[in-house]
Amino acid sequence: MLAIFEKTVGKSPEALRSPEGGSVCALKDGFLTEKFAAAHSGAVTVNFGSSGLLSYSLHNPNPLLPILFAVVDDIFCVFKGHIENVAFLKQQYGLGKTSTEVSIVMEAYRTLRDRGPYPADQVVRDLHGKFSFTLFDFSTKTVFLAADTDGSVPFFWGTDAEGHLVISDDVEIVKKGCGKSFAPFPKGCFFTSSGGLRSYEHPMNELKPVPRVDSSGEVCGANFKVDSEAKKESAMPRVGSVQNWSQQI
Predict the structure, then answer these.
(1) For residue 247, is pLDDT > 80?
(2) CA end-to-end span of the chain, whole Å?
(3) What is the rounded distance in angstroms from the CA atom of residue 7 to the CA atom of residue 176?
(4) Domains annotated on the chain, with CATH
(5) Is residue 32 a contact partner of residue 166, using CB atoms and an 8 Å limit?
(6) Please, are residues 68 and 57 in contact by the beta-carbon 8 Å criterion?
(7) CA triplet 140, 246, 83: central angle to 5 degrees?
(8) Does residue 243 have a pLDDT over 50?
(9) Number of neighbours of residue 60 by Cβ within 10 angstroms
(10) How far apart are CA 165 and CA 159, in angstroms?
(11) pTM reported for the whole predicted model
């Protein structure tokens, strides 16, 4: 899986940018999508115009961490891994027996976007299993990413020379697009376009960047850790139904 988003759609944390970051523009002339297609047979790319793109391949999947792709009502989602409490979540969201993990994630997002009763951290925390997912709502230009609490699925993010957000399960692809400005996506966290990076395990705590140093001693992006001493000022805001969730977190 590969996703690239323009910085006004998904602004990566400044701490991801390394002083020795690369000079490549991941979106220019299909540079990174060509690298991804060369490494992953049968790759399909969905272009979102100036907002970015999403590529995925279902060829030779890992049976332990399958990849699912779906699109409904301008919501595009790639899900990798599996959810253990599928039956419970299907019932909770009123989904049919044939619904899959990717359907559950998309419905969870729509519930949040359309003013569901739960805060975002609780909705993601209800997903039990080994997973990562990348969702893009074209209608609201909203990015929604998350990884499980153990970091069980390879999932990396970074920023290219022009500040585009780059996400992939292939670390070599991220390196090609971001140079040293990348890191593993933080486990137990989720990211949204307007709310940035948050921990769903510890929603009342701030996250702090910890510089990553590679084997040659150079700074290579940053890991994000829960700061046990820094608490958020208040709980996640809840607003009236006329407000759009994607603009509130």
Answers:
(1) no
(2) 25
(3) 18
(4) 2-233+242-247 (3.60.20.10)
(5) yes
(6) no
(7) 105
(8) no
(9) 8
(10) 5
(11) 0.89
8 Å CB contact between 161 and 91: no
- Single-letter residue type at 46: V
Q: Which H or E element spans position 35?
A: helix 31-39
Task: Evaluate the CA torsion angle 245, 143, 147, 47 in order and state its sign.
Answer: positive
Each residue's pLDDT tens digit, 58-84: 987 788 899 999 999 999 999 999 999
- How far is Cα 185 from Cα 159, in angstroms, rounded to an integer? 12
Q: How many residues does the chain have?
A: 249
Give me the phi and psi of 52, to 5 degrees please: 140, -150
Q: What are the φ and ψ backbone dihedral angles of 131, each rounded to 5 degrees?
A: -160, 160
Token look-up 């893009």 returns 136
Structure token pair of residue 32: 């990174």
Amino acid letter for position 51: S
CB 61 within 8 A of CB 67: yes
Q: Residues 79-107, buried b or exposed e (16+ Cβ, 10 A)?
A: bbbbbeebeebbebbebeeebbbbbbbbb
Six token digits for residue 95: 């989904």
Q: How confident is the model at residue 116 (pLDDT cuts 50, 70, 90)?
A: low
**At what angle are helices 31-39 and 171-178 packed, to 10 degrees?**
160
